[in-house]
Amino acid sequence: MGHSDHASSGLGWQARRQYRYLDPMKRDDLVRHILLQIEALPAGPPAQYRMSEIEDPLLLAHFELVVGSGLVNGKISRSQSSRGDVIGISGLTWEGHEWIETVRSDGVWNETKATLRDDGGALTYELTKAVADRILRARLGLINESSERSADT
To answer: Looking at the chain, which terminus has fewer C-beta neighbours within 10 angstroms, N or C?
Structure first.
């Protein structure tokens, strides 16, 4: 499977130049965007991308992070040959699917970021998942404020 087929039609990495200079809030928007794009890849053999053809260094770094984090089933193959380093992606891991389901809704994602920003929290993977999960549970009526307060004390 050719890398250029996926690069142009699947993930569209070169089209994401607006992520070049990101504050921490936008960085996590990029991670969310990458996972949503990977989730949308068609089933089949792993998509392969030559790292040298991903023009945006920030995007490349985040691509490597999501592979290394265990959120994505992928492999980075380092090579000294003319082919260069390659990233192969075969989809999201169970944990990647769980996280993206929790933050899929733009409303939940924006509320999660606002909550963490307003409370001075960092946008870490664990915190975004915990806060988004709490927001979803509240929206579904699975928790109420009084039971949450008593559980926190």
So the answer is: C
Task: Tokens for 76, please give them.
Answer: 């980075």
Question: Within 10 A of 4 (CB to CB), how many other CB atoms are there?
Answer: 11
> Rounded distance, CA 63 to CA 54, Å?
10
pLDDT band at 68 (very low <50, low <70, confident <90, very high): confident
Query: Which pTM does this prediction carry?
Result: 0.72
* CA distance linking residue 113 with residue 36, whole number of Å: 17
Which tens digit of pLDDT belongs to each residue from 52-64? 776 677 777 888 8
Which of helix, strand or coil describes residue 100? helix
Cα 11 vs. chain centroid, distance in angstroms? 13
